[in-house]
Design goal:
This protein has seven helices and three strands; from the N terminus they run ααααααβββα. By secondary structure, it is mostly helical. The radius of gyration is 29 Å and the shape is elongated.
Length: about 150
Amino acid sequence: MISRALEAEILRLHHTEHWPVGTIATQLRVHHATVRRVLAQAGVPVVQKIARPSMVEPYRAFMVETLTKYPTLRASRLYAMVRERGYPGAPDHFRALVARLRPRPAADRGVKSAHGSFSLVITNCWHAVPIEAIMSLDIDKGSCHDQCP
């Protein structure tokens, strides 16, 4: 519960100074939901944000197609390609958009090690197994070689 004086100050800052909710909340050290509640109780209409299209929207199909075809293509190279097609945005924001659009690799059954072998989980044991040997393993047997329990 906040004091009547704080409610009055919130209303004054909103009506006379035309401060937005976030500024009022920051300056008065209250939560933005508190400011919104006080304004709603006073009958102030809720301001709806206008959803506007992203600058990248006209280029999204091209970006998805290119990333699907070349999933490891660097964002800077894709930025140059889209920039040639008329994209007006900055490269920093573009990198974040590419990260959301980039296809994710499928999960592997194991983890490839630095030595080119493949680690495979079988009955709670981790062993470096050459890739050729993985195909011949009898997983139902419960062990990957003679040293496993």
